[in-house]
Amino acid sequence: MAAPTFQELYDLGRAEAIALRPDLVVADGDITDMLLAAATAMADKNVQYASEEILKTYVNGATGDDLTVLADDHFNIQRKVATAAQVTLSFARPAGAEPATTIFAGHLVATVLDAAGDTVEFATDINLFFGVGINGPLTVSATAVEEGAGSNVLAGEITRILDSISNDASFTVTNSVAAAGGNDEETDEELRARIKALSLTLRRGTLAALEFGALTVPSVRVAVASEDITTGIVRVAVSDSAGSSNSQMTSDVETALEEYRAAGTDVTVVGGKVLSQVISVQLRLEAGFQASTLLDSVSDAIVERVSELKLGETLYLTMIRTAAQNTNDAILDVVVITPASDVVPDDDELIRVTGTPTVTEVP
Questions:
Q1: Among 68, 127, 194, 257, which is most buried by a count of CB atoms within 10 Å?
Q2: d(CA 299, CA 252)
C-alpha cells in the first residue's frame, strides 16, 4: 500500500471537516483552505518521517550509520573500519666496522613525494637491532600511519628515512614487496552483501561459510573459496580491496577459519595478487563526432568495469566493449586491440588495469 499523497490527505481533511459541519464552504485562499493546507502539510511531513524510519529497518533501505546500527543490532555484523597497510622493510648500511645501533619501534619512513607533494608514511612495529659490524639488510614489519587503500604502496616505493638513526645518515631503507591490507571503510554495498551472505553460512563448513569467515578479518575485503573435487583440498584466496595480500593477512584468516571449516577438512589459505592488464581500444564513431570529447569517459568506464572483477574472475573482451560502447550513443563499434583474447586468471589473481587504457578512433 502506497503512502497517501498530499492531495489525498487534504481531501481527507476537507471531507472530515464538512462531515462535522455540512454547511461549511471551502474556497481557494480562504481561512478554511489555509488551515486545511497547514494541517495537511504537517500530516504529510509525518507520513514522510514514518516512511523514512520504516525504510531504515530494511537492509536494502538503510544507509550510512543507520545500516551500521541495523547490521550490528539485528545480525551482529560490524561495519569494517578503514585499515592501514602493513609492509616488511629492509634497512641496511654500508659495510664497515659500524657501532651497535637500534632502530626503535615507531621509526618513520616514507615513499618519495609525488607530483602533488604527497607521501605515504610508515612506522616500524618493533625495535630493530644492528650489532657491531652488522650492516644488513635486516627486516622489520611496519604499519602505515594513515588508514586507507592509498597506503598499499608498490614494492620499492618506500625509500625515505624521516627520523634520524643515531645520527647515522648512511642507513637506507626499501620494501622488496608491496604493502598490503590497507582498505577504506566498508561501503554500504559491501556491508549489505555480507549481511545477505550470513544465511548461507549458518551450517558452517560450506564454501560460502569459509568466504564469510575470511571476510571477518579486518584487512580482508575479497575472499573466494574453491574445492578440488579430485583431491578434496579446499582453498581460500584472500586479498584487500586492491587485490594484494601479505603473510599477516593469510595467517589471520587461517586463525579465523578455525570457527568456520568442517572438522577434518584441511583448508589452505593463499594470498591474492594483482594481475595487471594493459587495455587499448579503438572506437568507430558517427560521422562528424569529435572523439576527443569522450576519450576520457570511455577510459574511466573501462577501468570501473574491470575494477568490479573479483578474485579468479575472467576478463572477457565483451566486458570491455560493452563498458566502452555504453558511454555514448555516438559510438557505433568498439575494437579491442589489447588484450587479444579473454584473460583467464588463476583463482588467486585479481585482474586490474595497468595505467590508463589507450582509447583512439578507428583510422
A1: 257
A2: 37
